[in-house]
Design a protein that fits this description.
With 255 residues, this protein is an alpha/beta fold. 44% of the residues lie in helices and 14% in strands.
């Protein structure tokens, strides 16, 4: 497998791959492409179940992406096994159910660790490898709430995704000045039919019960497209950009 990249095959690492958007993306890529997948999550049993549905194209690595040493170990293991990494999808993350007036220090720390540090560690630890290759692609899975601070009960999560969006753009600006072959993409889903709500800190509504939720397969299809196109900033649902602009205009804010 060490020469796979010379045959046009991409080695794609997906974090948070044991369920939801990560799992759906892995299964779609395994079915629709010839790429080699590396699936990462803390939950071994769930991760192995996803890997088993990927037609023999997925290696499974158990690791906590909130720990820099674990991220570094995943990078090293993926390169050792497959010779290189082409695309790194930062999908690991977690929500919260708590209004801003009740958010605690621990809540902020948890949201920043799960939604910002996981992506920052991924970008920083893979970046030297991408620079050596002169090519590479980061895809950071954000949220519509990273553009639209409209769900009060997701306040700390919304703040973390705004942070992630800014960090992604600034990393892109820094790296493109010296290594234009390295791309950074932001993908912003809205509410998707996953376990996200049930797994949120302090509980909250099941995402599958939210009106107008998007099928997770549709979100995965957009991410799979971005793997190939390297589009820099993508919403997963038509009309989302217009919705964001309309919200800012209605609230007297110039975005």
């Amino acid at each position: 497998m060490r020469d796979a990249l010379f045959w046009g095959m991409k080695v794609i690492v997906i974090t948070g791959a044991s369920g939801g958007i990560g799992a759906a993306t892995a299964e779609l890529l395994a079915q629709a492409t010839e790429h080699q997948l590396v699936l990462v999550s803390r939950r071994r049993d769930a991760l192995e179940a996803v890997g088993a549905r990927c037609h023999g194209r997925a290696a499974v690595l158990v690791g906590d992406m909130e720990r820099r040493d674990c991220v570094r170990a995943v990078v090293q293991d993926a390169i050792r096994r497959f010779g290189s990494i082409s695309t790194w999808i930062n999908n690991a993350g977690r929500g919260i159910f708590r209004p801003p007036s009740e958010v605690t220090d621990a809540d902020i720390d948890a949201m920043m660790s799960a939604n910002v540090k996981t992506a920052l560690y991924g970008m920083q630890e893979v970046l030297p490898h991408f620079k050596e290759r002169g090519d590479g692609h980061f895809i950071n899975v954000s949220s519509l709430l990273g553009r639209l601070p409209a769900a009060t009960y997701r306040s700390a999560y919304t703040a973390a995704k705004h942070f992630l969006n800014a960090l992604t753009v600034q990393m892109r600006d820094e790296v493109s000045a010296t290594h234009p072959g390295i791309a950074f993409s932001l993908v912003s889903p809205g509410a998707a039919a996953t376990d996200f709500g049930r797994n949120a800190l302090h509980g909250g509504p099941d995402s599958r019960d939210i009106p107008n939720r998007q099928p997770v397969e549709e979100v995965a299809a957009v991410i799979a497209r971005v793997v190939e196109t390297r589009e820099p900033d993508v919403y997963t649902r038509a009309g989302s950009r217009e919705r964001v602009l309309a919200w800012y205009q209605a609230n007297g804010v110039d975005p």
